[in-house]
Fold this protein.
Amino acid sequence: MSVFIDNATRLVVQGITGRDGSFHAKQMMEYGTQVVAGVTPGKGGQRFENAVPVFNTVAEAVAATKANTAVIYVPAAVAASAIFEAADAGIGLVIGITEGIPVLDMTRVLPFVRERGARLIGPNCPGLISPAKSKVGIIPGNICKPGNVGVVSRSGTLTYEIVHQLSTHGLGQSTCIGIGGDPLIGTNFIDCLTAFQADAETDAIVMIGEIGGTDEQQAAEFAKREVKKPIVGFIAGQTAPPGRRMGHAGAIIAGSSGTAAEKMAAFEKAGISVMKRPADVVPLLKERM
Amino acid sequence: MNLHEYQAREILRRYGIPVPPGEVASTPAEARAIAERLGGKVVVKAQVHAGGRGKAGGVKLAKTAAEAETHAKAILGMTIKGLTVQKVLIAPAAEIASESYVGIIVDRTSQRPVLMVSPAGGIDIEEVAAKTPEKIHRRAVDPRYGLLSHQAMMLGFALYKDVKQARAAADIMQKLYAAVYGVGASLAEINPLVTTPDGAVQALDAKIAIDDNELERRPDIAALRDVSSEAPEEVAAREAGLTFIKLEGTVGCCVNGAGLAMATMDLVKYYGGEPANFLDIGGSSNPQKVVSALRIITSDPRVKVILFNIFGGITRGDDVANGIVQATREFTLKVPIVIRLTGTNEQLGVEILRKAGFSALTDMDDAVKQAVALLKGRAA
């Protein structure tokens, strides 16, 4: 088992003919992901890499290929529309890679996706990978190894850094999930902790957070109550200058300033081992496993 | 992107919210002419992106047009929290019966826009939240239906007992909600929302922040950006498609991804250095971005060593390497550079760097340690 994606994942790539979409579609195919379709309006009927049929709409792609997962590489201006389209076509899992989607667009996208029973991961995320099974997104496959550590992170490249540390030291991963760095995201830490707790192949969890908001604090409280597997955590932004948060009202609603110190304290209180630097992940995990 | 008060007031007016008259001046003479036009007592208010303008002496009351000119002369050019005042707002000195607060922000937890109102307005709302949280009323709005009339009325009654005033406030809240979606605001505040002695409800001061991701599709709003009120390096970085925040240290950091950039800064500190900046070259890379990044980093004379930390995903190692090489053709690097490069197209990137006489490390810890060691060697 793994979390969210596996060998049964049938992927449609939205924006498959674009610069980023085509590059990463190829990488995913090389990794062994079943890329069954691509979508670029106006390019329906073409074949990507002489193999993958391209459609004008996601609905056509789903009808023809039984795609069950979509990944989005289209530009920010049309990315919200691409998520709506995927959910409307009956796709159950939508991964939004695109960075720069306006937050107000997301206030409309998220209820729409949920009403259709779909799950959105991201946006502004690197996607996810179940090593040796399937990869959806942009996480470099060569840094991952199959194993029993679940990784969940708000960051992209920092996730690679920590996964790389794990793999080099022989700690493989069940699934690595980048949930995205935007304020409004479809899948949060608690969703991933729940999935990892239920996954028989995951024996330990690495949680990578950063400053801003209170998702990490809430996840820490949840972990203390519900998660029986050991967790190692990291918070980026210990030296980040204050004032990066959004005006006064943001801090009030959050009921907290969202600092690294506060989040690390919440982790410690919940029994999560806290890394001081990315390289600490291996010794701390070995201690806990 | 933050808007100035006068720009925010203009947006509120456009959405039908009652805002007292007022105009913006860039010179003392203009200030005088506006004060003469308005007649009576006026307030002269500094237009800078900083709170606490009043405490800093940036808000002054003038009884005559001549006095308005004198105040404008003093306020224009003064520095508030490091920002130079370029413009002043001249507005009639309103007689105020009561002051409230109305704000809208997108809440991360409920994932909805949230209306917040408080009868304790006019002062720092953060202070109200800390000392008397019961005085703040909140309402999450379902964006599919917008702020419904009865919801707005409930909040209106939280501010005013008088039904007319409650209704006026509710109307203002619905218009403010429309303005948020209309201009792409991440924050919109009216503070204070006042009542005048004759019972009218008006927005006296406003603050609007625009979600930067909205600007591409809203050129009219993007045109409101006041570049003169921002740090020049940050303007240059934004124009180059980079995210840059200036700090006080000596290690110039160039990283892909915000999380890794923050973790790199943290690690610089961990090993005894101080980061000179936060710089994220972003996702989809091109060599020109790297050239711009190096130009911005090296323009800071405090930078004694440059540290690249690149873990390629959507960013390709060859793009970054080409950017570094291209930059050294365009200008001379006067400080040592430590490059950590791994991930997508790593071999291509390392090869490009090697041919140009650079070496690259694969480990982040090693790279940061080396950068800090170079720094100490240089200082010693």
